[in-house]
Amino acid sequence: MTNPAPPAAPASTRERLLDAAAELFYREGVGVGIDALCRRAGVSKRSMYQLFDSKDEVVAASLERSAPAYQAFLLPPDDDRPPRARILHVFERLEESATMPDYRGCPFVAAAVEVKSPGHPAALVARRSKDALTAFFRGEAERAGVKDPALLARQLTVAFDGAGAQAVVQARGLDGLAVATAAALLDAAGLHG
């Protein structure tokens, strides 16, 4: 007989707040009130304010916490595929996401657009996330020997964000449009198979 696994430790108040924030802010936007957030997390407002100075900090912390999982979903694993295939992997994952009924676009773009201020803590987290995606594209473009890897990386990021916005606005999947757009950019940059 094997020993049963010990029960998982209950989520901390901070974890419950950040989980609720990530879910609510993605689904309903960062305008969700503190009362709704605390109710969803099962914590008091007092507890929230003991952990965070403001709702702005909660928004930023929830984005920061979700960034590694989002990147792990989008980016390919370290493997020996050629740069083109690794870049297109990101767009394939975007296409896959856009078919989900609860898809609301990139959570980082959504938050940055809602908070408006480029200096808002959530906008800073969003910028770091977008910079990381652009850096991935640039690294792959450099590995492929593209003439202007920085420009291609920025173009791919614009295509990624635009495709995500298109899926949200049209409320439907991308039907290969994101992958085809990325492939056209790669072709134009001379990054073939």
UniProtKB/TrEMBL annotation:
Residues 33-52 bind DNA. Residues 11-70 form the HTH tetR-type domain. GO terms for molecular function: DNA binding. The keyword Ion transport does not apply. It comes from the Bacteria. Gene3D superfamilies: Tetracycline Repressor, domain 2. PANTHER family: HTH-TYPE TRANSCRIPTIONAL REGULATOR YJDC (PTHR47506:SF1), TRANSCRIPTIONAL REGULATORY PROTEIN (PTHR47506). Signal peptide: none annotated. Keywords: DNA-binding, Transcription, Transcription regulation. The keyword Transcription applies. It comes from Nonomuraea thailandensis. This is AcrR family transcriptional regulator. PROSITE patterns: HTH_TETR_2.
